[in-house]
């Protein structure tokens, strides 16, 4: 399994803020991803209604998940495939290894798959003498650099061009040392050439799945590069890794979700390759795998059903929430310390590795609500993060300073008169102190907070409540006139 | 067994046992009737406009389209395209009767082999089963006459598509697929593989900047055979202007 550094989120975040290369990469991402999504959504007037439909399809499926999983598995077997039901990550790793060994596999090509990262498939295969080769351009360089992905769609977004060039020079040693990368396309062409021979030589191809379809027993992958398709077409054996919540009832259901996925993820109307795989090579087919295995993984999902966190199982892994998150936008994905970063990770990670280890993540949010507003299946991410904060507090996992601070605040909050007086004094003092400054870059007693951020100077006019009351009174006077 | 453990855990979460027979029948009915959800209005157009939308969307995604009057015009169109792109006049093509029945003797210099693609093939000629106007997408189901490797290994893919096979939305393609299969009611109509292809291969993994030709074809050229009487539309070159992202310019994340 990927090494977990989630408990060190604060230290990770501090390091990320001081990393100039990372900040350059993050600034670049924000600019492009927001605009592209917004343009794609604006070009489809039905997008909002599709979000409701997407949410309803997933809710219907989850309410009948046992039925649809059995229906799906029956169709896979009908098409000549095999389904391996795995409750735990251990079982899933063992199932993958066994299939590879039965085929005498030496190298395995892989399409990008987050569940593979979650299970640590690569480490497991390597430990048993089988070489996994990541073929997604981003995953390829991360495998060489021995880094985890920092984003679920663009795993290597944290790298800059110079990182690509130096890594390729270091690893592709048979090529001239002084070769020049004039364009980014030269970097890509080199990776394409290197990987082509790996595709052709692989014994097994492993992909994830964006959807599984109960009607037909199909697994669906969505890519732009075509690496997933080469991975699942050329080797004799195709292994699909998929968690149980990926299933949907019909082609029509998958289609409605596909209309949401690419627009939310990359701002494309549709990804370049959306591919439906169903079982084994048919009589007369000239290509395609002779063996088709689906490793169907629970690994903690079924525990979420019937709880507050069931809604998280609607997630289609588009990454819109992290692309729009102000916290992810400055810390990047590695700070979150495990496989899934950003708001979706802050909800999912505690369910999968425990709130004791991941308690910092649901606290790494300003609750601005942007994630929920862009989620294609309307997952109430802030609400779910709040649930985690409550559980953390109930289980006495939050640090003493936080608990004392909350107790102090609660004492005031239960005494509204006193609370209003104290906030009025506080706001007044800050407003006075910061007159003409615009923002505080440091404050006594709050240096921990201001070390990483600036505090805007409150505008004159009092607290929110005071101004709200004044406005309401003014409105009433106007109405009487 | 893990299957029972997983299903049991799901049912415990849902606070029920296995679904009663009548509810199972209802869900099986939902699968058998596969109701459509909302279909965006953008593809609900008169025929000629639907085809124009298809072309516009292909070009928006950096594919190219050439309209040809009939299949007899394909050898010349292929040869001219390869010459214009400075590509060798040698191709691997789908063993589909629409392509193999063409009289290729008009272009004797064009070397052709009907088979799956291999690593050394530079150009493929594929038979497109359908096109989807909504997003300019080709539907390429695998079978003995339509190998999947033709869509992946060569650097250049040329696809032959009949205008009469262009539909508006994905759902129409699914229904055509079901109609063509004997056991559509039980979901057994799916070929091993269906690729929905929208433009040439690309990646934005390097600095979120779009580059074409990542692992699959760098060029996707569609020969649209005008086999149905449709009024000729003006050239949809304005689609180029609509395309907001050019190769080499900042793009959204790829995969």
TrEMBL record, chain A:
One protein family per Pfam: LUD_dom
Keywords: 4Fe-4S, Electron transport, Iron, Iron-sulfur, Metal-binding, Repeat, Transport
Record carries keyword Signal: no
Domain 4Fe-4S ferredoxin-type residues, every copy: 303-335
SUPFAM superfamilies cross-referenced by the UniProt entry: alpha-helical ferredoxin (SSF46548), NagB/RpiA/CoA transferase-like (SSF100950)
InterPro entries according to UniProt: 4Fe4S_Fe-S-bd, 4Fe4S_Fe_S_CS, FTHF_cligase-like_sf, Helical_ferredxn, LUD_dom, LutB/LldF, NagB/RpiA_transferase-like
NCBIfam families linked: LutB/LldF family L-lactate oxidation iron-sulfur protein (TIGR00273)
Protein name: Iron-sulfur cluster-binding protein
Source organism: Falsiroseomonas frigidaquae
Lineage: Bacteria, Pseudomonadati, Pseudomonadota, Alphaproteobacteria, Acetobacterales
UniProtKB/TrEMBL annotation, chain B:
Cross-referenced SUPFAM superfamilies: NagB/RpiA/CoA transferase-like
Basic and acidic residues compositional bias, start-end: 229-241
Domain LUD: 100-225
Coiled coil regions, renumbered to chain: none
Region listing for Disordered, in residue ranges: 227-255
Stored InterPro entries: FTHF_cligase-like_sf, LUD_dom, NagB/RpiA_transferase-like
Gene3D superfamilies in alphabetical order: NagB/RpiA/CoA transferase-like
Protein name stated in the entry: LUD domain-containing protein
